[in-house]
Protein 1
Amino acid sequence: MNNWINSDHNAFNVKVSNVSGKYKYIINGSNGYQYESSEMTSGNTWTTNHANLDVTYTITIVNTGPNSLSAKVNITSFIN
């Protein structure tokens, strides 16, 4: 998890807000790590600590409802 500004970051925070619809999130790492949340209908914040510096993480927000999903997503990486 390389940061282009400063030292390598080893944690990240994801905040989902202003949600209209149902969703879940999936985190996949290039090392085989995978996490899938339960279904949600409101904003949520989660933090992944101890991220591996050599791993690329992909965060996917999945619409699980019958209608359109809208939300604001903010991802911040940091040194833990």
Protein 2
Amino acid sequence: MRGLIILLGALALMGSALAEQNAFDPEADFDAFWTLYDERYALFEVKGVDWDKVYDVYRPQVSENTTRAELFSVFESVTDLLNDVHVTVRDTEAGRFARSGGKSLGTGSFDVGTFSMELIESAYAQGGLTVLAGGTMRYGMLRGGIGYLKVDSFKYPTTSEAAADEIARAFADAPAVIVDVRQNGGGSDAVARMLAARFADERRLVMTSEERLPGEDVLGGPQPWHVGPVPGALRVPIFVLVNDRTISAAENFAIMMRAFPHVTILGETTAGAMADTFPVALGEGWVFGVPSNVLRDANGRSWEGIGVVPNLFVANTAAEVAAGRDRQLETALDFAETAGPRLLP
């Protein structure tokens, strides 16, 4: 594969650059960037992108006279082809940042007005919400004794486990539970699996992971992710709220949860960025985000670039939220009170 030839050339050029105090070398930087994704990015097949053709189109646009700003623009154009919000380009020298396939997620406000925690606390929660896990979880009761859990992120694995146990105990007598992962930017898949175990009915295959190892042209075999119930797991009807700001590990949590027959996913299609990602620094001040695996649901389907489709699609509007109504939460409450079944598999 041409990647090896380009890699050797890029390393030679980068070695010369290092010898010259890391002088900016746009051609070497582009080749190193292309090779990095050629060797490590896991989702070319899922995305339908021919990376060799990308090189043929964009490499001629870079010369020894290319400026740093121009090279950043080329990197941005190339990564946009992947339509993957986990793919990022950061120029630490100039303070520039770009995110593939999701500029609004990278540069706009995370809260776009269609969700309000303050509204939930003031208009729906009865007796307030208890904050746990370093501020990443809060829980309480809604009308009819229905449990409500808001997860802001899947971080802090140590404190989150103790918090999840406390929440499960608090909901032991609840007829149904609403788990809200809207406006959740992700975190650790291990935390997502840990929390899903508090709602599992039995041990089930929930996802698989296929890793792209350095230098390998094919993915490794699928590694199964199983989730089973822990003592005190809740088997009542569970409703998981999602929206387009449900991202990464939060999406994987939704995928895991939909493997259980007593769980309904409700809201809007999620962001569509599930893979695990690592940062790599190259050249003089460039840092790239590289997704390294393909995650699939229990049926073998990847939702990358698509997003998790809810069982029941319900959208909030900014006007409704400003007027004091959370339509998604209210719909989940209505279903919870009637123990309505999932509408789709």
Protein 3
Amino acid sequence: MELSMAHTLRILASLTFVAGSALAQGTGGSQASGGAGGAQSVDARVKALHTLLSEQWEYTLRTSPEFASILGDKRYNDKLSDFSQAAIERDIAQNRVFLTKFAAVDASGFPEQERLNRDLMVRNLRETLDAVKFKDWEMPVNQMSGLHIDAPQLVTSLSFETVKDYDDYIARLKQLPRAFRQVTVQMRKGMGQGLMPPKILLVQVAKQANDLATQKPEDSPFAIPTTKFPKEFSAADQERLRNGVLSALRDSVLPAYVRFTAFVRDQYAPHGRTEIGTWSLPNGAARYAFAVRRSTTTKMTPDEIHTLGLSEVARIEADQLVIAKKLGFPTVKALRDSIPKIPALHPKSREQILDEYRHYVDQMTLKLPTLFGRLPKAKLEVMP
């Protein structure tokens, strides 16, 4: 579930380990330039890096139990994440510890992929800690994510194969009131500091929560696992588990949704931002610049990127004008306006559309090495 910037970025940082583990399988023995002693030193440091990656990965699974469940790791299936301030502060402190450890890894002599594993983890952890000053955990809901919609969506990602799976699920459902209380505390803090989503989005949040709050237990998406039990379950187990899920919904989950709906509708949404741009948040310019840096992985400022975009548009439009004039049109707009009226420019079949896109992809593929230093191994394919 995506309930805070710190929570989300920690998961993103940990995904480096997934890639790193796969890559490590293919690196084989380490290469070094300093003889047998040097080779052993590199091997030992690579092994230490793998141990550290494993430690960080296990920490993520333990503190993000929903994420673990989505991956099929059922060790924490009976738990929900802790969204309290104490948990947030522990997570920040632990990320500082991990950053210190990863930054201390000497990657000299490492195979390229191993060095990349280390560098990506350091970068992700630094960005995670850089984001702390923005306190995005105090704006934990919007119309796209938040406990109110992440929790029911999680159900579709879980597997229910054993009686224990269902018992764990019931235990997890009973923790939703606690999670909603913790999230609401963070939202109240955000209200006091001007960290508010746009009001127009919060109106939708209230409606989303109310739709779930007003459903009958048996009609709730949380009840989906009770609609089909594994055939080997006894009738007694099926009845007990169904009653357990419906009871948890009736006594814990739905009342929590009712309270959350009332809070968002009556107290939170009225204080939502009237301006939707990130700039309207406290420290908005720095917040936006951080988002740009994280999304683009460049050191360009937002203004520099905007200027680059304008220059690219101008360059492309100049190229289009050359084409337009070759075709007998005085302007690009005249060419565009004429396209619907020229049958020869319209594809005549489904396959022709696919072939056209394949042709463009092939053209672009030839240019990629001149624009990027690292290319994906898998070829982009256009398929119906």
